[in-house]
Design goal:
The chain is of the alpha/beta class and about 220 residues long. It has one domain: Purple Acid Phosphatase, chain A, domain 2 (4-Layer Sandwich). The chain is built from 5 helices and 11 strands, in the order βαβαβαββαβαβββββ. It has helices spanning about 15-25, 45-55, 70-80, 115-125, 155-165; strands spanning about 1-5, 30-35, 60-65, 85-90, 95-100, 130-135, 165-170, 180, 185-190, 195-205, 210-215. Helix 1 runs parallel beside helix 2, helix 2 runs parallel beside helix 3 and helix 4 runs parallel beside helix 5 (about 155-165).
Length: about 220
Amino acid sequence: MRIVAVTDIHGNVGVIRKLVDTVMEVTPDVLVIAGDITHFSTAENARKVLEPLLKTGIPLLAVHGNCDGRDVPELLDELGIGVHDRRKEIRGIGFIGVGGSNATPFNTVWELTEDEIGEILERNYLSGDIILSHVPPKDTKTDLTHSGLHVGSSALRRFIEEKKPPLVVTGHIHEARAVDKIGKAVIVNPGPLFRGYYAVIEFKERDKTVKNVELLKL
């Protein structure tokens, strides 16, 4: 399975058009979006961002980010692509999602407690599933801010340590574009798409392992 992973679009429709051209060449089996489709904006604007991707016909899965408007998760569910607090399968591979983020100093739109994050994961995960989470797990390369702080989710990290998912795709921390591991779990923060960053992940369906990750730029 070839996965194109993006995050943190922040309403940039122009970069989505560039991504579509790239995606058609890469021919992924699924495209996943790890949140912040808009920049504190509405479902109407989220629809404009998503429309070029939906027209490709490539299966699309998404969660909202902490900077998406209150009505964005409802739109994702209406379009049939939302995986926040739910599980969907593509080609027999399960995907579960956690939208929003843990607490931030900025009182953003969608923030969850660590208990809530843990409950969403426990409620939906089946062994071998891929996790799509806007917030990264704590104490990895993918949650490290410019100031040197690790600000990811401790609940997500504990869950990864316990359940050992094969792959976690995340975002949220723009400067933390990286691939890391917690045990055998591969953690990928593609970097913000509004700056042109994305990732291509080769995932082995038979044994549910990550074969390769490329961090790329449009």
